[in-house]
Amino acid sequence: MKQVNPFYKSKEWRKCREKVLIRDHYLCQQCLRKGILTTANTVHHIKPLEDYPELALDEDNLESICPTCHNKEHPEKGRGKKVEPQRKRRATVMKAEANPERW
Ligand SMILES: [Zn+2]
Ligand SMILES: [Zn+2]
């Protein structure tokens, strides 16, 4: 059930992404702020693409980022602290409890 925004496949994005990585010297900007040098392989939208589609290719809204920092920026993608996925998990548990082995 992975949803990939078709925008990320566009030529414009690939070009823009490349530019930002070069601008940032392929270093994670978030790690850099903490004084750590980490290779970035992702370009992150500081203001989320979904909310600010007009900033999709705005270099000021983009920063190079490493996977670790990126996961922190998008907790909903991993096992973050957001409340939403918990509801789902609980529903699964309830289902399991409602189906005891009968024989
Ligand atoms: Zn980082
Ligand atoms: Zn991102």
From TrEMBL:
GO MF annotations in UniProt: endonuclease activity
Origin superkingdom: Bacteria
Ranges where the HNH nuclease domain occurs: 15-71
Biased composition (Basic and acidic residues): 70-86
Keywords tagged on the record: Endonuclease, Hydrolase, Nuclease
Chain segments carrying region Disordered: 69-103
Family named by the database record: Belongs to the HNH nuclease family.
Protein name, per record: Putative HNH nuclease YajD
